[in-house]
Amino acid sequence: MGGAPQEFHFGIGFLANAVEALGVNAVELQRTINKNPYKAIPILIWESNKWAHEVKGEACKTTLAQVMDWIDQAGGAAAIDDEEGPVFEFIRALGKSRSKHVPEEEPAEGK
Known about the structure:
Elements: H1 12-22, H2 29-35, H3 37-55, H4 64-73, H5 77-81, H6 86-99
Helix pairs in contact: 1-3, 2-3, 3-4
């Protein structure tokens, strides 16, 4: 954003802040993203960036408006679906972080 590399953190602190900012509970989070990605994704990006600064004891100087402008510069609404772009890269990383350290189910015998 703004030409400077940015850091994003996922985890419990980020998720707590994100669900609060979106006004949903944890169960409703994915539904909210699907319902209005143009609102939810910028907020998630911003909350993740703010959390990265907070864990380092720094103030985040990035605003939600700057995040939205960055998305517009990356292609706007189309950037959310562009699998090669930075917005989708964030979405992919978020998805992976939510399933990290989740044990895989063992296949049932005989299947």
